[in-house]
Amino acid sequence: MTDAGADWLDILLTFTRLGLISFGGANLAEIERVLVGQRHWITPGTLASGFALGQIMPGPNMLAMTHYGFAAGGWAGAAAATLGFYGPTALLSAAAALAWRRLLGWKWLPTIRSALLPFGGGVLLAGVLVLTRGSVQNVAGAVIAAAAFALLTRTRVNAALVVIGAAVLGALIGL
Amino acid sequence: MSAPAPPPAPPEDAPHPPPAPLPVTPTHADLLRVFAGVAMVGIGGGLPAHMRRAALGRAWMTELDFAESYTLAQLTPGPNAVNLAAMIGARLRGWTGALWAVVGVLTPGLIAMLAVTVVTLGLPGGLPAPLQSGLRGAACAALAVMLTAALPVLRVVGGLRGGWVLALATFAGIGLLRLDLLPVLAVVVGAGLILHRPRPEQPERP
């Protein structure tokens, strides 16, 4: 906890901005720039361990934001960060989905869908790249990722088991 | 049932059943329960894959519905998995459906994350080394989970005219060149709109 006294409203607004400028997942580079460099709410160590913790939590892996919010301002900070990061974007998403449904039958709809899908696919691939940079730091990590991918695509094993197995393996070999 | 009975006549005042766009419509409690369940099996990421399995398996959506929602969730800013939950919830049950889906997908993780946060941020010097190593291993597997979730979308993209070219251009612009997202969006989606513009002489695409 580098600064447990940060104002909750400040935290709310900062995390709202971080949520609204994240596309295709979280914009980790920007999160680091603002939270570590600009506001000094968290240390680089907290950023890394919070992100890794998010990976093994049930649910979205950017629950790390709750972790960062707690580091910045205790319980109120955790609540403000969670609400700010998830609330406005969820609202926007619901609005987009509802508008989309009302447009069914419009002749440009298949056109827009066909135009958006490749963009979505590309953003997704870019997110995989960012995640690769963030998590695969050596050959052992790459081997674990490749083995996990093979397991997930060729067997019906539960993904959570694969992740937990990889965690045990990582701890054993000192990844 | 060997004796065939005539089918019971509908009551005179029965309302016409509304045209159901989806075979099955979940209740709010279903959304809360299923999305909390998705969060719990989605430890380590891969939530979109689990949502797809949950929604398609219960006949809440079709594959195309899901691919559409998935793309929209990528386009709206913010965390994909929560956006996707909000979209699926909204599609199935409107605003309140979105609310319950989001609450469901966040609650298990929030409880777990807060519990771990209170402990670990209290530790002087951060997490012990073996735990750090374990988290790195988990992150590598989480990457693989995310990649498996991307495959269905990429399959749909592969079937579109110019789909691969535009997807790779997006990947290069955002992932490799680290360009601003909005100009890339404008160019790629603009090109896609021109490629797929409605043409009166063409039969409608399914």
UniProtKB/TrEMBL annotation, chain A:
It comes from the Bacteria. Keywords: Cell membrane, Membrane, Transmembrane, Transmembrane helix. Coiled coil: none annotated. It is a multi-pass membrane protein. Pfam families: Chromate_transp. Its main location: membrane. The chain crosses the membrane at residues 78-100, 112-130, 136-152, 157-174. It is found in: Cell membrane. Belongs to the chromate ion transporter (CHR) (TC 2.A.51) family. This is Chromate transporter. It comes from Deinococcus depolymerans.
TrEMBL record, chain B:
InterPro entries: CHR_Transporter, Chromate_transpt. It is a multi-pass membrane protein. Its main location: membrane. The chain crosses the membrane at residues 31-51, 97-123, 135-157, 164-195. Residues 1-23 are annotated as: Disordered. It is found in: Cell membrane. The keyword Nucleotide-binding does not apply. Keywords: Cell membrane, Membrane, Transmembrane, Transmembrane helix. Pfam families: Chromate_transp. PANTHER family: CHROMATE TRANSPORT PROTEIN-RELATED, CHROMATE TRANSPORTER. Belongs to the chromate ion transporter (CHR) (TC 2.A.51) family. This is Chromate transporter.
